[in-house]
Every structure is written in C-alpha cells, then in structure tokens.
Write a structure and sequence with these properties.
The longest helix is centred in the last third of the chain and has 26 residues. The termini are far apart. With about 550 residues, the chain is of the alpha/beta class. It is built from 20 helices and 13 strands. The strands form two sheets. The protein has an eleven-stranded mixed β-sheet with strand order 1-3-2-6-8-7-12-13-11-9-10, sandwiched between helices. Helix 11 packs antiparallel against helix 20 and helix 14 packs across helix 18. A hairpin with a 5-residue loop joins strand 12 and strand 13.
Length: about 550
Amino acid sequence: MKKYILLLAILVIASCKNEKSDSANVENQVDTVSTDSVEEMEFKVVDSKFIDQDEMWKPFESDLSGFSTEVYEEVKALVFEKSIPEIQQSIEEGKLTYEEVALFYLTRIREYDRENDLSLNSVISLNPDLIQEARQKDQQRSATSQRHPIYGIPVLLKDNINTAAMPTTAGAAAMRENQTDDAFIVKRLKENGALVLGKANLSEWANFFCDGCPNGFSTVGGQTLNPYGRKIHDTGGSSSGSGVAVAANLAPVAVGSETSGSILSPSSSNSVVGLKPTIGFLSRGGIVPISSTLDTPGPMTKFVVDNAILLDAMKGVDDADSASKEAGEQEKEYYSDLKLNSLKGKRFGAMKSLMEDSLYARAVQDLRDLGAEVIIEDPERVGLPNFVRLLNLDMKKDLAAYFQNYGGEVDYKNVQDIIDYNNLDSLNRAPYGQAMFYGIVADSATDEEFAAIKDTLRNIGAKVFEEPMKEHDLDAVLSINNYHAGFAAVAKYPAITVPMGFTSENRPMGLTFIGKPFSEKELLQLAYVFENKTKRRKTPKAYNE
C-alpha cells in the first residue's frame, strides 16, 4: 500500500517555533516541533503609538455612561459565552435587545483591550455608528419576517477587509487614511443584517512584511496578546486580533483571512473555531491581498454553529473576483444542517508522527468513540519549492491592483511606495524592519516561470491530499493547528480547526480537519460532532468578569 505524502508538522509555513503563518521560509524550516514556555515573550513594541483612545471612544460616551454595572451583569448572563442562536433566542423572548448586545461588547473592549494590566490589543478601531445601527435593527426586527441568524449580531473584521465605517490599514502606518467602500463580503454581511463592530488587529500586512517579527504585531495596532497566557503564549498569525477578541468575548464572531495558516493558526492558538474555505468560496474583493492564488477570508467563532452562520452570511458570487465567479453559488443555510450526532461510517487519515502529541492522540480516540474509522500512516517528507516566491510575485501585482481597484485616497501604487514611506521614519513605522517587502521588490519572473511555480506547488498539494483520500476513501485528513496549512493552501483544500484541549502550560491546541474542495458543509458537520462530544474550549480565566 502506497504511503501518502503529508508533510511533518514543521515543514509547513506555520510550524516554526512561533507558528508564523504567512511569511516563514518554507524551504528553511527546521525539523522540530514547537514547545511551550512559561517565560514571558519579549517584544520591541507592545502598545500602539497611533490609536487615539479618546477619539475612538468619543462616539460612545453617552450610551456607555448609561449602561450600568447592573445592566451589564444582566446582559452578560444572556450573551457571555453564548452562541448566536442562544443570543437570538433571548432577543425573541424579549429578554435582550441588539443595542444591549452592542453595548455589552463595547464595555468589554473598553475594559480589557487597551492600556491596563490585562490589555490584549486586539481591536484597532470601532464603528462609530454601531449603537445607532443596533437601535435600527431593534426597530426593524418585527417588520423583518425572514431574518438571517446574523441579523443584529456585531461582527469584528480583520483590518485588511474594507469597510466604509473605518479606514482599512492592514496594520500599517502608511494606510491609516485608507478610507474605502465596503468589501464584497461586508456588503453581504450587511444585506443579511449583521452589524460591523469594528476592526481587529493583525500581523501587519497579513504577516508578509517583516522577517522575525512576532505574530500579532502591527505598527498601528501594537502587539496583540494571548488571553490564555498574556506575553507567554503566541497569538498565532496573522488574524491574531480576530482570534483573541472572540476568545476573550470582546466580539461574538470575527472575520479573518488566510493565505497559509492565518486563520487556522490564531484560531487554534486562542481556542476558537476557524474555517479556511476553498479558494473562491468567499469573495476576496476589497481585501488587502498577499496572493490572488491563495488568499481567502473566513469565519472565526467560539462555536461551530456560529462559524456556519457567519460563513453563510458572507457567501455570494462576486463577478469582479475571478475565483468567486468560477466557484459559483454555494449551498444555502450551512447552519441548518448541523444535525449529526455520530461519525459512524466516516473515515479519517491521521499521521503517526503526530500521535506523539497526547492531545492529538486523545482526539483521534474521540473520533473512534464516535464511530469513525481512523487510518494511521507514517508520512513521507516533501517540501514546497518556491512557495515564498509565489507570494512575492503575487503580492507585487496584487497589491498594486488593490490600490487601483479598491483602495482609498492614498498616494501609493505599489510595494516600493510603502517601503519609501516607511523609510522616512523607520523606527516608528517599521520597528521590526520590512525585509519581506524588500524581497517582493527584488523578486521577478517571466510569465512562464511564474506559471511553472504555481503548477509545481498545485501538483504537490494535490498529491499530498488526493492520493490518500482516494486510496483510503477518506472524508478528511487530521492535523494539528496550522501544521499542514501550506499544503492545504496550494491544493486549495478547505480546513477547519476546533479546540481539542490545552497543554500543561495552558496553551490552546486545535484539531484540524482538512477536506476536499468545496466540502465546507461536511467539514462543519464533522467539526460540530467533535465539538459536541468533547467541549474542550474554556474561557480564559482572567477575562471572565
């Protein structure tokens, strides 16, 4: 029986010691698995030098002053660690309003996110019209008979996703005035009734900017910190703020984006559910890019049902995005089909090398207890040649296209313009340097060479997953965190990570299901059964008030 080719955990983009997701050099990864540390991580910069707290909170002063501690506690009982269906049920019963939900999350952001001993630095900006929009949802609710479950629910957007309410900075000082229209997925969210809560911090330029900088750092947002081990555990990257805010109940749900691990990494690092969809399932229109070949947005939530709801609320065909147009319309109501309570008849591929991880081994046994068959193989090793070159060559053209087609009134046309701006005050604008951007500018290839790079990577990715899936008739391959995100990326396979427990150092870990293209519905069902069986997510203790 042929061994199927799957890379050991650390030969992928995100499996270096700090699980860097989008900018690590795949070809130079060392053959070690990351270990926990109780020592505090060291950072050059923690707090933002660019966020004006007084200005950010000015629109909410009056409303928050009337949101008493007593009311906060009453709302907390109905909202804290609750799923979207549970929150909607309380609203249907007249126990809660959308305005109160919005005020609850604003209160928590003000309490926990900036300038104190518990600060997480997960939110960059807030929608100044949030409370007014929430009141409108309350007023219109009874007249809106066919409401999507996302109706009235505040959604936090990673700050590389355009929205008219706030600038889209990608965490970069150069982009602080990038005032844009809504991205396609934001338009879909609004059409389905969602509220835009604000913008989440991120690894600057989605982790493709500086070399050796920590996950979760951006010049605009400062250093995002992990609520399960502040300054101890990595946040993962690049959608760090999205993962941290959801984990600490600063937002009910959030949207991240992934090129190779940027949803899976911060989701697993912060004990939340993260789905990286098939390329084209969701539009990329109006999202600051790395790679038009590999980029996709995706939902990050505390619960699988919320993940399905948020995914459903964003989908739709965007004719301006070729991948979305090619993918076409997706199924309806992913959230209504989460009814499995057994995995009988399901088949999974597990990796022998990962069975040394006790949490992974326990998760495999959980799946067997639920009726699944798990085939364990010893994988061969294989690399991803020229992966970083793919990102370089894509971003060189894709960022220029973003500025032309989706950017605001900013005076940049390409990567070199950003480098030049940062060099005028590099200490404040690029404290960790901008080595990856220099690499983009220096790289070049003919159309034929670029096509060959993409073809090689696509073939490797397909071989990694298609062969074992066909040979063993698998429903999904099982991984840890974002260990195999690079291969899922080039194969354009979707993946979902679900909390599977914590290490002895209280570091969250996720079980990741990697499925066939456009198998999002099946992945959500599998994840839902595992989540209900195990219930291994827990609230970070310091953020439980």
